Amino acid sequence: MKKYLIMGGAGFIGSNLAYRYAQDKENEIYIIDNLSTGKMENLKEIVEKYKNVHFYKEDIRNSNIIKFIKDNKFDNIYNFACPASPKYYLKFPIDTWETSIIGISNILKAIKGTKTKLLQASTSEVYGDAKEIPQREEYWGHVNCNGVRACYDEGKRAAESLIFDYKRLYNVDVRVIRIFNTYGPRMDKNDGRIISNFINQAINNIDITIYGTGKQTRSFCYVDDTINAIIKIMDRKEHVDYPINIGNPIEISVKKVADIIKMLTKSKSDIVFCNAMNDEPQRRKPDITNAINLLGWKPKIELQEGLIKCIKYYNKK
Ligand code: UDP
To answer: Helix, strand, coil: what percent of the chain each, to 5?
Structure first.
């Protein structure tokens, strides 16, 4: 029997992981979420039908979490607790910063001196508006430390710094993954991110809103591929002493994504250009050499195939 705790487990990636682990009845899955951006709907099926899934509404900033973790002696903990969409972290910057930093501090205090493995969901945003393309893990990044995105970027960077201090001082077993843009089922249709926005705009035949020129790029990984990487890195027996990029290295412009989604949905929407976002990273593309070498992992699902799955999902919502 394995005992897992998923913090932020009602959110997009956390809930997809919970579904995957819940299939094995030998696993006991504990999920904590304050439901600020996560949705109970994402967990409905497993919480209602699966006896091995336990949900608690709680905020990771609450110090009760430390006792809860110590008492339960989890094998693995996964930390996804944090607003991750610019729409939400720009609206709730202080909560975002606090969740990132106080949250990880609580977990680290609780697992210090134990054998619990912790997965930290870090982010490509630690590289900011990167000047190095593709981004390797060694790149220190280019972040505006007092700009509007800093609550998220600096929150996740500070979390990494605390984690690596705990590793150096106490040898805690933390695996840090820097997740690049991920998409797929269970991303809330009002989440505000590009794929959920564009598909829902396209299927409703309303304007597809490009922020800025549309020449900025991202690299999109389908969530099942991301989950496979998470499972692989946590199944590894040996510690992982440095952060690992997890994402799809195929880079594509925002305008091209709009064109593909419009074509796949046979939409009558117009593509319109709106104001650019502040401090917007212009090019994002992961170097995944370390993930390939360490985990034998690379993404398998191509963008069009993943988008078709998402279109089916949002059509049913
Ligand atoms: N974007 C856009 N229109 C939208 C939503 C997003 O043009 O309705 C752009 C956004 O400006 C960025 C990219 O799509 O260049 C990815 O944005 P998202 O919010 O998905 O994630 P980010 O990578 O910025 O964290």
So the answer is: 45, 20, 40
pLDDT tens digits for range 171-208: 999 999 999 999 999 999 999 999 999 999 999 999 99
Q: Say which of 21, 152, 166, 314 is annotated catalytic.
A: 152
Distance between CA 297 and CA 299 in Å, rounded?
7
Question: Quick check: 7 and 13 in contact, CB under 8 A?
Answer: no
Distance CA 11, CA 8 (A): 6
> How many CB atoms neighbour CB 148 within 10 A?
15
Question: Six-digit token pair at 45?
Answer: 């099926």
For a pocket test of ligand 1, which of 193, 259, 303 has the largest count of ligand atoms closer than 8 A to its C-beta? 193
Sign of CA dihedral 310, 183, 100, 296: positive
* Greatest distance between any 2 Cα atoms in the chain: 58
* Residue positions counted in the chain: 317
CA of 74 to the centre of ligand 1 (A): 36
Q: Is 152 a catalytic residue?
A: yes
Cβ neighbours, 10 Å, residue 44: 12
Residue 86 Cβ < 6 Å to ligand 1? yes
Which residue's C-alpha comes closest to atom 5 of ligand 1?
194
**What is the tens place of the pLDDT at every residue in 214-237?**
999 999 999 999 999 999 999 999
